[in-house]
Amino acid sequence: MNKVAIWVMTGLLATTTVFFNVYIFLMSIWNYRQKKKWSPSETIILALSVADVAHQLICYFWMTMDEVDSKCLIDQRPYTVMLLLIYSLKFTIMWDTSFLTFYYSTKLVSTPNHCYTQIQDAILKHVTLAVCLIPLLGLGTCMPMLVVFKSDNITAANKDCGILTPTNNIGNVYEAMYLILSDVLPGVLMVKCCFSISFHLAVHLRQMKASTNGAHRPKLGSQMRVIQMALSLVAVFILFLVIDLYVNYQISVNHENIVGLTFFFTSIYTTVTAMVLIYGKKTFWKALIHEFNVCLDEYPCLYCLKVPEQKAKPSTPEKVKT
């Protein structure tokens, strides 16, 4: 029953993940047709949305097959290949997200270190190449699983078919290395970017407040939206990282077969990340709200659910003549 509940909840999250990421993909294509080019951030976001959708579809297909084939009668090789692709796509998602945060930190924060600035420029000049190399590196990192892991065909209660498990110390070392490469390293990069952006924000606000002598509230405009998006991405990533490492610890150390739970939490992460990305891109957010309101116009009874498309301007009190 636990597996069925997780399967149902993951299915609901899969719908939202696919919807939001396909929306990002279509909006990116529409912007490209208008501008005839992609900015580095749009390239990374497009790659991230494709990886999210592919990961979600393969995850849910694997979970569905595991529910249908409860006796594990089907050959275990298809399960093994799907798990390999899932782990590879998870690697891609983690590094694409950290790469996007790194990009925003380079745009928001100026560093006096000339050598570090040159490295940043070299990376950002080859964004498309980097985005293409990340999935290949993910696949290459996961290929040793076929050698150091054993594919078990477990049919006991609450167990799954074709699970890849380490068979010896080499397998355990590889599993730890995989988690470091796919989870911890991108997390460290994102935390570093988070500190850089937060420090930049604090300094910028202090300078703006000093320039206005505290008479007016400092405003950052569209820059503040990007900062909120970048910091939200980091916060969501760190929360997911803690949960993912704990679940993997339970699988590796306590040998609990809860792979479906990792897919469920990853589905939550990809859904929330897509929503944060849409909010961060003002054109995406405004278009989504507009389409949502247009759909509600077809049903007058749902008029109360409409979202205002423009912020209400603060009313200034009229002066009273004495």
From TrEMBL:
Belongs to the G-protein coupled receptor T2R family. InterPro entries: TAS2R. Gene3D superfamilies: Rhodopsin 7-helix transmembrane proteins. Pfam families: TAS2R (PF05296). GO terms for molecular function: bitter taste receptor activity; G protein-coupled receptor activity. GO terms for cellular component: membrane. It is a multi-pass membrane protein. This is Taste receptor type 2. Keywords: G-protein coupled receptor, Membrane, Receptor, Sensory transduction, Taste, Transducer, Transmembrane, Transmembrane helix. It is found in: Membrane. The chain crosses the membrane at residues 6-32, 44-63, 83-106, 127-149, 184-205, 226-246, 258-279.
